[in-house]
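Reproducibility note. Readers wishing to regenerate the assembly model reported in the main text can use the exact inputs given here. Chain order matters: entities are listed in the order in which they were concatenated for prediction.
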Amino acid sequence: MKRIIAALSLGLFATAPAGAASLYNTLDGNAPLIVAHRGASGYLPEHTLGGYELALEMGADVIEPDLQMTADGVLVAMHDATLARTTNVEALFAPRNGDYRVSDFTLAEIKSLTVEPTGATASTDYPGFAPTMADPYKVPTFQEVMDLVAAHNAATGAGIGIYPEAKTPNSLAMNRQILEEMKSNGFDGSVPNTFVQTFSHEGARQLAALQTEIGMDNAIAALGYALDLGDGFGVYDATTGSVTALEDLAGFADGLGLYLGYDLDATFIAAAHELGLSVHGWTFRPRTDEAAWEMFLPWIEAGMDGFFTDYAQRGVDVLDRYEAAEVPVPATLPLMLAGLGGLAALRRRRAVA
Ligand code: G3P
Ligand code: CA
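Running the prediction on these inputs yields the following structure tokens for the assembly.
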């Protein structure tokens, strides 16, 4: 219900009571985004269609695929530069060039692999969840990820975004391919909460320029580590060992994806907001529901705009609890909203049965 009051404060309803304040100190006053980090990677094998589908069912706002390029030029969802940590490649193939780099294997070879659960809490089973695809734990192509999210949006009327990461080193050709594939799948800037991210700040600047050239307008997010420079704030770019000032980032980026340490705090977030930059933190990995509350709450109150989390359900639950705990609703408000018929759409988050 508090999200409804936030909507009122933003003027989304003509009858908003005077003085109603947003519950959130986010850049747009809306609830922080729950970004499904590597899918539902705390529950199921990371970066798989099954994992993304579970995250959608849990009510994530955004699906995050990290992207690598195969030997035959296909973008696939994979965090690491090699196949070894997350798949059974070592059981099926000999190393190539001394390793199992994605870029040394064809898509057909990679499709023969199975993605295995990693981390302490993931498995191949989640209670009450039955993946709809025949083989849910293969390495998906970027195309398949977009197909899944687009089909979900078409079927439900939701506007779930995607947050592809061009893993570094990201070439001009790779950046162009990511954007062109997004545009041809309708992710041209018209799908809400869609970002393109990279750790390379020069790469982010290039992505912004390429979007203009191609004629699309997704948000661009630069990744890194928050720094208080004394006379301002910046973000450390670990790919070059340099620091980019927030003012420079605001020249080409719309948001920042930041590690939850270094100098990241409410003051940094407020400075980013002053420049029009949203702030999304990574990575939220609470092991229990209570740990989730304690981990998310300070960042909600600091005005963070989105949470990369392996546990989408816990992120959704924390926001619901936060909203339930806050401002009492005037007795007439539910009746007014029922008349507007908007409740069903606003209560879009649902737990998996
Ligand atoms: O992209 C934001 C966050 O995912 C960065 O961490 O290493 O999981 O890609 P990583
Ligand atoms: Ca990532």
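We highlight two features of this model. The CA atoms of residues 2 and 328 lie 9 Å apart. Residues 64, 66, 165 surround calcium ion (ligand 2) (CB under 6 Å).
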